[in-house]
Specification:
18% of the residues lie in helices and 27% in strands. The chain contains 16 helices and 37 strands. Helix 6 runs parallel beside helix 11 (558-575) and helix 7 runs parallel beside helix 8 (313-323). The model is unreliable at 1-33 and 751-758 (pLDDT under 50). The structure holds 2-acetamido-2-deoxy-beta-D-glucopyranose (10 copies). The site of one 2-acetamido-2-deoxy-beta-D-glucopyranose (NAG) has 4 residues, from loops.
Length: 791
Amino acid sequence: MAPMAVSSSSLIIAVFICFSLAATSLSTSDDDDNDRQSYIIHMDKSAMPSSFPTPHDWYSSILSSISDHESGPIIHLYTYTHVMNGFSAVLSKAQLARLERTPAHIATFPESMGRRHTTHTPDFLGLNTRAGLWPAAKFGDDVIIGVLDTGIWPESESFGDTLMPPVPARWRGTCETGTEFNSSHCNRKLIGARKFSRGMEQQRIPINTTEDFDSPRDFLGHGTHTSSTAAGSRVDNVDYFGYAKGTASGIAPMARLAMYKVLFYDDYQDVEKSYDAAATDVLAGMDQAIEDGVDVMSLSLAFFETLPFYENPIAVGAFAAVKKGIFVACSAGNGGPHGYTMQNGAPWITAVGAGTVDRDLGALITLGENNSITVFGHSLYPENLFLDRVPLYFGRGNRSKETCGDVDLKEAAGKFVFCDHDENGEAGFGPSDEASAVAGVILNTNDGEFEEHVEDFKTPIVIVSTKDGDYIKSYLLNSTKPTVSVSFGSTELGIKPAPKVAYFSARGPDVRSPWILKPDIMAPGYDIIAAWAPNVPFAPIRGGEDYLKTDYAIISGTSMSCPHVAGIAALLKSTHRDWSPSMIRSAMMTTADILDNAEGTIIDMTTAVAGTPLDFGSGHVNPNRAMDPGLVYDVGVKDYMNYLCAMNYTKPQIAVITGESPDSISCEFATLDLNYPSFSVVMNNTNTSTVVFQRVVTNVASGGSVYRGDLEIPKGMRVVVEPATIRFDEKYSTAAFNVTVEVDLSGIGGVDYVGIKSDYIGNYGYLTWVELNGTHVVRSPIVSVAASPKT
Ligand SMILES: *[C@@H]1O[C@H](CO)[C@@H](O)[C@H](O)[C@H]1NC(C)=O
Ligand SMILES: *[C@@H]1O[C@H](CO)[C@@H](O)[C@H](O)[C@H]1NC(C)=O
Ligand SMILES: *[C@@H]1O[C@H](CO)[C@@H](O)[C@H](O)[C@H]1NC(C)=O
Ligand SMILES: *[C@@H]1O[C@H](CO)[C@@H](O)[C@H](O)[C@H]1NC(C)=O
Ligand SMILES: *[C@@H]1O[C@H](CO)[C@@H](O)[C@H](O)[C@H]1NC(C)=O
Ligand SMILES: *[C@@H]1O[C@H](CO)[C@@H](O)[C@H](O)[C@H]1NC(C)=O
Ligand SMILES: *[C@@H]1O[C@H](CO)[C@@H](O)[C@H](O)[C@H]1NC(C)=O
Ligand SMILES: *[C@@H]1O[C@H](CO)[C@@H](O)[C@H](O)[C@H]1NC(C)=O
Ligand SMILES: *[C@@H]1O[C@H](CO)[C@@H](O)[C@H](O)[C@H]1NC(C)=O
Ligand SMILES: CC(=O)N[C@H]1CO[C@H](CO)[C@@H](O)[C@@H]1O
């Protein structure tokens, strides 16, 4: 575990809202007889006639050659230079058919849509101003993080630039002018801000409604939160209505930020069909970020999980970024706790799951007049409220269980109500006004099963664990006149065990690509405080018509964990300029913690039992150890291509992802075995499988070293590592080894179900390279997993 030094004066700010962009392909025009729609067109750039000075001129010329009078004007949305070779445009079916007859045409994809997936965390991660990664990296000095999100609130103190040196000369980005935004909003911290909305505007979404700004300004708070989590400046005395008081700091407080706004407001009433982002815009934002010169990209959003990699704009854009040495962190998604819910699972992306931190926010409950016993419950009720000895109400007839929905609100008026969750683990009453006559609610929950969002309730509500709830119940049953005192706005630190896997965190494997274990890593993503857009009505409060606004908000999501890893990548990049994106990822993965702060395996919040690598990946990120991993597993662009070949993607499909010409692609070395720091054996309706993994590790520590391969292997798995000892003469020398994994589940009952809710069929263990004459420990999970969920 990282040292869990905890001091209340250095709370951290980091937010990742779990807005997973679940994209859906739009069917053509359901609203009128016009068959025009937005398309992404991939072209073979090697076929461009030399008479055209740029690809943009070539595409424009092709577009004018296919235009006609009947179909109306062609709208050329974007030309893409880095993320892919091609462009996006609004075309009719007839125009598209003509375009597809152009010999250089490779592929067409219709527009697809996505959704977005939320301080004390630097401390919890063991970042310290005097030793370790922070001072070594000069807090992220000279690294530029591009964030693709809902925009940014530039006036937030978290984007102050007092301590920042001049903007790096290599920066090519700019600050765009628009509604309530102009270049003077950028400074030495926020060095770029743009928005990409042409694709959204072709859908039903008008930008610059009363809800959104036609500019890089944040309409929601999400982008302000993720940006300040990754690289916000230090701000003292931050809190959220009394909760989580402390100093807010991004993970890389000296790194620069550039905002690429690609997420927009959608007021479409049908939640299932509403979305926040268009593929054409996300591609344009990533294209521009590469052009501008970012070093790290952070995307807390996703497209529909079943899109193949070649049709997924984030996977396509990230490939181009990684090719240029840019590290790309993405949220794993908030579709947990079931297995096979991973999003953003392409092997070149670093996919981040979410965990809790060692901090509880809520209310202190004291029972009875003189009862010295206090109980801490979870709450974010935005009022520094102290209720002194209020009558405590518990049900009418059945004194063993009373769901909140059964409470007689007339009888309970003015009292604090104690009630149980219902069978579905729900509160049983709405988050809104229904319970406004009561003084407050103590909700007895079934621990992890309870997924109600405490921040949605207008009534002062405290959620207690089953153990504490049972204690309160026994007090209630003993007393004739039970009373309770409740103090909101309380923060407790040093909570054990922590971290736990957050219930919503999406779980592996990735259904499109189960040969690579996903998620890669876990980072803080539960109850994270970070900067917010202060114009957004946010916190519900009793009696108020409106919601309270705030400069700093507490939210949860893999959206919040992703920018933590982006910030750590910035720190590592600052310390190791020569590391590739996959070396940075390897350093984080092989040094991650699999034990919590109580020295047990990290548990899953949903089940309260030990999680597995399919829940937390390689473990919880430990930045100080990642700085000095000893060995790294590097993966090159060609390796990813060989992987795509082995997935049986066609050459045009591989060309779409890699930006290569289809003719130049060779699948001679196709393999599903990437030089990855984890091992996944896919069981496809079999009890037995044997896989030989070939790996090469690079010594990134100074001088020579010797390592021994240690194995922790479960029943039903046999593993041989060859050679079992590897030697390095000097820094950057490499060593090859083979890992043979033989899985036979028949001896243990055919299938062994591991993981939450028995979704996973399989098993897991670890290979750890232990340095014999030094201190480095390089751990990799080995999992066997069913190719598809249990049916
Ligand atoms: C840009 O915005 C700032 C702050 O709102 C304002 O003071 C300034 O006049 C604006 N500049 C331009 C060129 O509009
Ligand atoms: C609580 O303590 C006060 C002062 O010690 C005492 O007067 C009172 O009777 C106690 N109440 C109960 C219910 O024990
Ligand atoms: C009271 O609730 C418990 C738990 O739901 C249930 O087992 C019991 O049968 C109920 N008793 C009555 C009298 O309704
Ligand atoms: C309630 O009474 C039972 C039985 O006397 C006792 O074991 C329990 O500790 C009491 N609970 C509280 C909260 O005082
Ligand atoms: C790819 O095709 C080959 C040959 O048909 C087949 O053996 C292999 O299982 C396929 N791979 C995947 C990942 O579907
Ligand atoms: C560890 O052993 C290797 C190989 O024998 C040697 O080159 C290296 O200097 C040793 N390192 C330390 C720290 O002793
Ligand atoms: C790993 O296995 C391959 C294929 O059998 C073999 O060619 C290679 O020499 C082995 N590598 C090591 C380090 O044993
Ligand atoms: C796997 O093993 C179990 C128990 O030995 C057996 O019942 C089952 O039929 C086997 N399944 C397959 C696909 O071989
Ligand atoms: C599993 O096997 C089925 C049937 O042969 C095949 O269609 C599917 O692609 C396989 N899945 C994987 C992940 O190899
Ligand atoms: C909410 C919003 O951004 N409204 C703007 C829409 O555009 C007009 C004209 O540019 C502005 O005046 C509004 O402020």
